[in-house]
Fold this sequence. Notes:
It is built from five helices and five strands. By secondary structure, the chain is of the alpha/beta class.
Amino acid sequence: xxxxxxxxxxxxxxxxxxxxxxxxxxxxxxxxxxxxxxxxxxxxxxxxxxxxxxxxxxxxxxxxxxxxxxxxxxxxxxxxxxxxxxxxxxxxxxxxxxxxxxxxxxxxxx
Length: 110
């Protein structure tokens, strides 16, 4: 499944990184502790986090994540969105909480 498919199916808002919407999503990782994410996340994961600072894009780039999903309509720092655009990492925003996002992604087969 591609990031674009998730955006369309779940009505997520694309905040940045539109050039990366055709990235393949092969799993999901949910965590807010960056060091833990770096040691446990996997390539092509969609990453759900409440963190909104630019370091999340650095981690997503390093691990080759498909996208970053921000739950509960949390506002994302402008510097983070700029970095996401530079790295072509889609940053998506949802009204749902992290648990609800996981349920919906599971229903989609991710």
